[in-house]
Amino acid sequence: MRTCALMTTGGTIVSRIDPATGLANAVLSGDDLLAALAPYGDVGPVEIHDVVRVSSPQIGLDDWRALHDGLQAVLAREDVEGAVVTHGTATLEETAWFLDLTLATDKPVVVTGAQRNASEPDFDGPRNLFNALQICRTPAARGKGVMVALNGNVNAARQVTKSHTLDVETFQSGEWGYLASVVRNAVIFRRSPEPRLHVPLGEGAWPDVPIVPMYVGATGAAVRAAVAEGAQGLVIEAVASGHVNEALFEAVLQALEAGVPVVIATRIPRGHTRVGYGFAGSSALMTERGAVLAGDLSPWKARILLMLAIQGGQTDTAALRGLFGT
């Protein structure tokens, strides 16, 4: 039996309550996580790599690069079946999508975590980790890209999103549905993730790509400030199917005229961006001036794809529309 690599990054799954403060902190190691799996059965050989130990709001771009490089190295080995990444749930979907875009492998990569810390009697971390290791060893998991597995459900990295702050069934794929389920330790796949993209991680600096939200009364000041501070790209978190008000529209046009790529996403979790209206600030008028629609990608996932595209020199409208499929 070949080994599964376990890459730990912190989060609730490695957290325990500090009696002095009553607050949870990331303190457990990969060895601690594996020790908790004894009641669940044999998971086979596992090679532990403790990459970083922080709460997931603290995960940074340099941590992403270290995680990517570590995964790419271990997955290139013949003796490695696949990999499991443990991660805090707050930004888990962003890390999963980043890895799905940048890793060059057909081997399974499963990102998991926990909603309850190790001090709670119904700690969900061990079962989630045990299931993730089962997926790592499942032949049908090959070629499925990076997956997110918690509470017995498996999601595609592109479509998964956190839907509840506390519920253990927090990760959902909306209208797309789960990729697979784990039932009595059997991994049952129902579909394949589509569409898939691969955008290599470059060696250069990370481009500055802010997300600017649309809301009632938005003035466009945030867009102008971002451009003035040197933003290399912008993601607009628009309303409905990709619309903004007239003030924000004027700021977006100024950014486009300054040569800054602009991607229009929506704050609505289901559906996607599309054209269909002709008012000032509509998605149709912004795309006519060179903005790119994000399709089904959330603003935070659109930002990751835009960052990688800019890093790789794909900044013209045609190239970006090809990447975003719009």
Question: How would you describe the overall organization of this protein?
Answer:
The protein has 326 residues and is α/β, with parallel strands linked by helices. It has 2 domains: 3-189, Rossmann fold; 211-324, Rossmann fold (3-Layer(aba) Sandwich). It has helices at residues 30-35, 61-75, 92-102, 125-136, 221-228, 246-257, 283-288, 299-311, 317-324, and strands at residues 3-10, 15-18, 23-26, 46-54, 80-86, 109-112, 146-150, 153-156, 161-162, 171-172, 180-183, 186-189, 211-213, 234-238, 262-266, 292-293. The strands form 4 sheets. Strands 4-1-5-6-7-8-11-12 form an 8-stranded mixed beta sheet, with helices on both faces. Strands 13-14-15-16 form a 4-stranded parallel beta sheet, with helices on both faces. Helix 5 packs parallel to helix 6 (246-257).
Name the average pLDDT. Answer: 97
- What is the number of domains? 2
Please, how many helices? Answer: 9
CATH class of the largest domain: Alpha Beta
Strand order of the largest sheet: 4-1-5-6-7-8-11-12
- Global morphology: elongated
Name the CATH superfamily assignment of the largest domain. Answer: L-asparaginase, N-terminal domain
Tell me the distance between the termini: 43 Å
Amount of beta strand: 15-25%
Q: Can you give the helix content as a percent range?
A: 25-40%
Structural class determined from secondary elements: alpha/beta
Count the beta strands.
16
Cα gyration radius (Å): 20 Å
Keywords:
2 domains; eight-stranded mixed β-sheet; alpha/beta; four-stranded parallel β-sheet; Rossmann fold; 326 residues
Could you give the topology of this structure?
Elements: E1 3-10, E2 15-18, E3 23-26, H1 30-35, E4 46-54, H2 61-75, E5 80-86, H3 92-102, E6 109-112, H4 125-136, E7 146-150, E8 153-156, E9 161-162, E10 171-172, E11 180-183, E12 186-189, E13 211-213, H5 221-228, E14 234-238, H6 246-257, E15 262-266, H7 283-288, E16 292-293, H8 299-311, H9 317-324
Parallel strand pairs: 1-4, 1-5, 5-6, 6-7, 13-14, 14-15, 15-16
Antiparallel strand pairs: 2-3, 7-8, 8-11, 9-10, 11-12
Helix pairs in contact: 3-8, 5-6
